[in-house]
TrEMBL record:
Protein name: ATP-dependent DNA helicase RecG
GO annotation terms (biological process): DNA repair
Organism expressing this protein natively: Candidatus Falkowbacteria bacterium HGW-Falkowbacteria-1
Keyword presence, Kinase: no
Alphabetical list of PANTHER family matching this protein: ATP-DEPENDENT DNA HELICASE HOMOLOG RECG, CHLOROPLASTIC
Keyword DNA damage: yes
PROSITE patterns, A to Z: HELICASE_ATP_BIND_1, HELICASE_CTER
Top-level lineage group: Bacteria
Keywords from the named record: ATP-binding, DNA damage, DNA repair, DNA-binding, Helicase, Hydrolase, Nucleotide-binding
One GO molecular-function entry: DNA binding
């Protein structure tokens, strides 16, 4: 057995190329590979023999190849591999499309294990495009039988390869060291980490997945809360700058806004102002559904900080959003003559003349001079010193701010006043039940904006089938003629990275050519240069561009009140929480807005059959979106729908950083909290558990601050 920190290159069949691909997914060591967990499973019911086959169900067969050959279908322009397979009870026809190498891999007389569905076509039974693997009497199939793990991939890697690698290193599962105290495992009747890892990669039955998930769920929540436990302890020893409430100025500012604040906005602002007036550092979470108006609340807190002649920073998860906040701040705070700057890895801009033009430490110079710095999350991960930073606001905080809070504590942000730490506000649209927030966030307080600004109409949401797409396009055309604008989101392609960008480009071509030749459209994706993205967003805001065709980068925060159409292609591939976020990009102004959920076109990879993909499950999920406008309701349904076989995946991402746990796991949250309390009674610094301490510090360092 190997050392877990050993490079994956030391494994058989991993050469330079494969190593690069794995590295792309963050897998460098054996340990990384071990913790690359499947995000769902495929299930193939074992079928003893060809006399017992079931039609249209995912089954596994063990058969012999009697005959295999390729033929060209000129009409369909493809290669078809046909095979006859048999066992003692009968024989069966199998076909594959456009995989000519199959007839080289599989030979007459080979024993194979096949997984897939058998279909009936005019009385003939055919298994189309099954997954296959050669077997012999000593080997058990790993790709085709029982519960088969499905992993996230990068292009050029296959499920089979990844499974093979993980199987190879599986003896190492025994070497993983347990983080949780033994007594905790016993008290909570949890299996240990070694067994949990084995079960998560190679479950034999549903219960294995269940048991493993229970373990990891507990571990995630335990670590999360242990972090907040230490954070709270540390914060209790810290001091913050007192920011006096400049009531008159704040009132004037609120009166100058183009709208009246909602009651919840007023209440939240007040809660924050009262907090930062004290000299113990605030840790507050501002929660409000998409479009509820969180930004203005943050700006009120920021204004108060600046009026106290102290610095503030405002961070967003994407460049696009940071730029948007910068523009809003410039506009709303115009008359105060504050020095405001935008800082991200690609962009540096300010509304004031910099005293020095030395490009090298421009960040440093900006942070010494500006009153308000707006940027991406990377702002705090860099080693920057501030003048007198007293308030930090983080927008769209899916990670709940514990790690970032810690980061800020650790950083020597303020040169002059090393003994103070900034007040901290994080904002999220993730719905959090109040009862839970108290348990989960330990030291943090919660403000919620529950009601949306008055004048808002519900967003009309519709599921659009392929047949009705043209009608929908006509409608969009009409809306644009009326002066409105639209977003089109391209499908998420689950397992392979960068494919989204391709689909955005293709969608653009298609629409430009066939549907909206006259309309100004632009594409947008995460890999574009910041300046390019910004140009597109500002053209869109100025209504010069009518349609933006985008990957999910548009997901968070963007605010364009004139946009009334959100069309999501391949909607069945997204999770409800994410769809809700997309939908939140419209309905932000006075106009009636629409959200169209378009289903993927059925890709017929089996041209001989009328293969109807079963959409009923996904449409029932999408129906929920029609029915509910509220994020909390949708989050609950999303969770119910995770269903069996789907432990997590891209579908869940963006909602929380937990993979197994969720904020609705009240029982486990409570149990892990109780454990921490119990353990801390005799050992408040967890000195008996150095591994645990190491894990949470490591975790903090590893947190990606995008
Ligand atoms: P989110 O909570 O999703 O971040 P934003 O802060 O972006 O929402 O606000 C959404 C839109 O609503 C913005 O255009 C903002 O100017 C506007 N807005 C905020 N508060 C109100 C209000 N009380 N009345 C009307 N419009 C508002
Ligand atoms: Mg926002």
């Amino acid at each position: 057995m190997e050392n877990l920190e050993k490079n994956i290159k030391t494994l058989p069949k991993i050469g330079d190329k494969t190593e690069k691909k794995l590295e792309k997914m963050g897998i460098k060591t054996i340990n990384d590979l071990i913790f690359h967990f499947p995000f769902r499973y495929e299930k193939y019911e074992f079928c003893e023999n060809l006399g017992k086959i079931k039609i249209n169900t995912a089954i596994n067969l063990k058969v012999k190849i009697d005959l295999i050959r390729n033929k060209r279908s000129f009409r369909k322009k493809m290669t078809i591999s046909e095979a006859i397979v048999s066992d003692d009870h009968g024989s069966l026809e199998v076909i594959w499309f456009n995989q000519p190498f199959i007839s080289k891999t599989l030979k007459n007389g080979d024993m194979v294990s096949l997984a897939g569905k058998i279909m009936a076509n005019n009385g003939r039974l055919i298994m189309a495009s099954p997954i296959y693997e050669k077997i012999n009497q000593y080997s058990e199939p790993i790709h085709t039988k029982g519960i088969v793990p499905i992993y996230n991939l990068t292009s050029g890697l296959t499920q089979k390869q990844l499974r093979f690698f993980i199987k190879k290193i599986s003896p190492n599962f025994l070497k993983i060291t347990e983080y949780l105290p033994k007594e905790t495992l016993e008290r909570q009747s949890l299996i240990n980490i070694n067994l949990a890892t084995e079960k998560i990669h190679f479950p034999k039955k549903d219960d294995d997945i269940e048991k493993a998930s229970e373990y990891f769920k507990f571990l995630e929540l335990f670590l999360f809360q242990l972090k907040s436990y230490f954070l709270k302890k540390e914060l209790e020893t810290k001091r913050a700058e007192k920011l006096e409430i400049k009531l008159n100025e704040i009132k004037k500012f609120i009166l100058s806004l183009p709208f009246e604040l909602t009651d919840d906005q007023k209440k939240s602002s007040w809660e924050i102002l009262k907090d930062i007036e004290k000299n113990n550092p605030m840790s507050r979470l501002l929660q409000g559904d998409v479009g509820s108006g969180k930004t203005i609340v943050a700006l009120i807190a920021i204004l108060n900080c600046l009026l106290n002649k102290k610095q503030a920073i405002f961070m967003a998860p994407t460049e696009i959003l940071a730029t948007q906040h910068y523009k809003t701040a410039l506009k709303l705070l115009e008359k105060y003559n504050f020095k405001i700057a935008l800082l991200s890895s690609q962009k540096k801009e300010s509304n004031f003349e910099l005293l020095s033009k030395n490009k090298k430490d421009i960040q440093q110079i900006i942070c010494q001079q500006a009153d308000l710095i707006i940027g991406t999350h990377s702002l705090i991960s860099e080693n920057i010193h501030f003048k007198n930073l007293s308030l930090v606001v983080i927008d769209e905080q899916h990670r709940f701010g514990v790690s970032q809070r810690q980061e800020i504590l650790k950083k020597n942000l303020d040169d002059n006043k090393k003994e103070t730490t900034p007040h901290f506000l994080s904002m999220t649209a993730t719905p959090i039940p109040r009862s839970l927030s108290l348990v989960l966030f330990n030291g943090s307080k919660l403000s919620s904006i529950k009601t949306k600004p008055k004048n808002r109409l519900d967003i009309k949401t519709e599921i659009v089938s392929t047949e009705r797409k043209n009608k929908m396009y006509e409608f969009i055309n009409q809306e644009i003629k009326n002066g409105r604008q639209a977003f089109i989101i391209c499908p998420l392609i689950e397992e392979i990275e960068n494919s989204e960008i391709k689909s955005v480009k293709e969608e653009y071509q298609k629409l430009k050519k066939n549907i909206f030749p006259e309309i100004e459209m632009s594409i947008l994706h995460g890999k574009m240069k910041a300046t390019e993205k910004e140009q597109i967003m500002s053209d869109f805001l100025a209504n010069k561009i009518k349609i933006i065709i985008s990957t999910s980068v548009i997901e968070v925060g963007i605010d364009v009140p004139n946009a009334t159409i959100m069309l999501i292609e391949g909607a069945e591939r997204f999770g409800l929480a994410q769809l809700h976020q997309f939908r939140g990009r419209v309905g932000r102004g006075e106009y009636q807005s629409y959200c169209f959920l378009s289903l993927s076109e059925t890709k017929n990879d089996t041209p001989f059959f009328d293969k109807k993909i079963n959409y009923s499950k996904s449409t029932s999920r999408l129906e929920a979106l029609k029915k509910y406008q509220n994020g909390l309701d949708l989050a609950k349904i999303d969770l119910k729908n995770r269903g069996s076989g789907n432990i997590y995946g891209k579908i869940q991402s963006g909602f929380t950083n937990f993979k197994f746990a969720s904020i609705f796991d009240y029982e486990t949250i409570k149990k892990s909290r109780d454990e921490i309390e119990l353990l801390s009674q005799s050992d408040p610094n967890f000195e008996k558990y150095p591994l645990l301490l190491k894990k949470i510090t490591k975790n903090i360092e590893e947190t990606h601050l995008e």
